[in-house]
């Protein structure tokens, strides 16, 4: 993936946060079965050397695991987190497998009822959550 719009679109897909990274997966629904992947690591994580090292590690993991566990016709984005560079490579591999499994088990949009507090009009207002007696 090379365009910013592709990364922004992937942000609207499913996500699986892990200690060393966040995995985003979005079905493109364009009929193309190709799996695409992108990697992003912000400057908050470290300098250029650290970010490039992290991206190299993610690239190797993606090339190894996505053909086996990835989703056809989907964009996969790995977002590096602070501390991800210090994590053991085998631990990162295990976490990526776990993240891909988590996304495979996640319900599709509209399959499950809304979570508690997610319904309109049921949030906390100015009263701090206490009911007022008329």
Task: Write a brief caption for the model.
It comes from Sphingobium xenophagum. InterPro entries: Ribosomal_Su5_D2-typ_SF (IPR020568), Ribsml_uS5_D2-typ_fold_subgr (IPR014721), RNase_P (IPR000100). The chain is an alpha+beta fold.
Topology (SSEs and partners):
Layout: H1 4-10, E1 14-17, E2 21-27, E3 36-40, H2 48-69, E4 74-80, H3 89-105
Parallel strand pairs: 3-4
Antiparallel strand pairs: 1-2, 2-4
Protein name: Ribonuclease P protein component
Region (Disordered): 103-134
EC number: 3.1.26.5
Task: Describe this protein's structure.
- It is a single chain.
- The chain is of the alpha+beta class and 134 residues long.
- It has helices at 4-10, 48-69, 89-105, and strands spanning 14-17, 21-27, 36-40, 74-80.
- It has one domain (4-105): Ribosomal Protein S5, domain 2 (2-Layer Sandwich).
- Helices cover 34% and strands 17% of the residues.
- It has a four-stranded mixed beta sheet with strand order 1-2-4-3, with helices on both faces.
- Helix 2 (48-69) crosses helix 3 (89-105).
